[in-house]
Write a structure and sequence with these properties.
Keywords: Cytoplasm, DNA-binding, Phosphoprotein, Transcription, Transcription regulation, Two-component regulatory system. The chain is α/β, with parallel strands linked by helices. The protein has eight helices and twelve strands. Strand 7 and strand 8 form a beta hairpin. Helix 2 packs parallel to helix 3. About 30% of the residues are buried.
């Protein structure tokens, strides 16, 4: 199994959450290291070289965002952020700074485990990116720049294709509005979110069976989009 033997570092100051995660992760074949403080977590990350990090945004000694920024100076280990609902702006900042995904407290253990498995799969695939990506009835050939839905070719504009290609570079990962705008339109367009709304709407009409209830191009309200 993919997760067997994978090392997970949990950085969270709540002992009950660390205990809960330790039991659940061990039951699913993970090894777990833990830290209650941000600085301790950075030291643990350097020493244990985990395959994935679960990082709480509210730590007593330093902000979770600062922990992530320092980590990203030397490591690209996938990070899943634990947040609370009202921390939307900080959540966006964490994703922009390089977090892989986030889970909102209180979280279901099944959801967290699914996010962990997905992040580990993406991490393993990054080194050998597939030329053809198949997501249900959606097929994206990134070499030939061809997109089909239910084996029927779909004609996309260059901008629509660039949005889809960016999301397809890491399926399942949340891309913030800022990340997408910079990737597709370039620096200086980070605040032009209306561009995204227009082109995502057009793209959904071409790749979704029911654009009003999309199954591929999913909106993360107030944050951005992910390709499922």
């Amino acid at each position: 199994m993919l997760e067997t033997g994978s090392r997970i570092l949990v950085i969270d100051d709540e002992p009950q959450i660390r205990r809960l995660l330790k039991v659940a992760l061990a039951a699913h074949g993970f090894e777990m290291a833990e830290a209650a403080l941000g600085r301790e977590g950075l030291t643990q990350a350097a020493m244990s070289r985990p395959d994935l990090i679960i990082l709480d945004m509210g730590l007593p000694d330093m902000d979770g965002l600062e922990v992530l920024k320092q980590l990203r100076e030397w490591s690209q280990t996938p990070v899943i952020v634990l947040s609370v609902k009202e921390q939307e702006e900080t959540k966006i900042a964490m994703l922009d700074a390089g977090a892989e995904d986030y889970v909102t407290k209180p979280f279901g253990m099944g959801e967290l485990l699914a996010r962990i498995r997905a992040a580990l799969r993406r991490s393993l695939k990054e080194a050998a990116e597939e030329a053809v990506l198949t997501l249900g009835d959606l097929r994206i050939d990134r070499v030939k720049r061809l997109v089909t839905v239910a084996e029927q070719p779909v004609k996309l504009t260059p901008t629509e294709y660039d949005i889809l290609k960016t999301l397809a570079s890491n399926p399942g990962r949340v891309f913030t509005n800022t990340q997408l705008l910079k990737a597709v339109w370039g620096a200086g367009y980070q605040n032009e979110t209306h561009y995204l709304r227009v082109f995502v709407g057009q793209l959904r009409r071409k790749i979704e069976q029911n654009p009003s209830r999309p199954i591929h191009l999913i909106t993360e309200p107030g944050v951005g989009y992910r390709l499922m």
